[in-house]
Model the fold of this input.
Amino acid sequence: MEENKIKDFDAFLRKAVKEVGLEEPRTNFNQAIFSKLELNKVSHIKNAKPLIPLVGWILIWISFIALVASVLFFGQGQKTDGMYISLLNKLVNLNFINKIPDFQVSEIYTYGVIGLLVFLYVQIFALKKYLNNKLAL
Done:
């Protein structure tokens, strides 16, 4: 009985499709759809400029190297009377391998460098999040 119902329904559908016929889309159907879409709206990619330019980074590195060199060459307890002569003598007899074990870093200097690195990382992640939100319009 179930099979008869399915066969009757199938025959009815075939007869209805033959009477009505299949619909075909208009010739300019795709063009009509695309004209309704806004294809001209293309998101513009913004070029992100670095917060600190290359010249700034170079100056930061030069000042950092100068600070480390001043700590190496002008330790505590040295007089500055013959500063230039002693600096030239040290540059002539420069031997970093023997200097490194004698290098003493104060706690304040260590905390300062660690704090600077922490703030630098925080700034990088905060700026990345800010720029991603700004550019993801």
The chain has a mean pLDDT of 78. Residues 105-137 form one domain. The helical segments are 2-20, 29-36, 54-73, 83-92, 96-99, 107-135. The chain is about 65% helix and 0% strand.
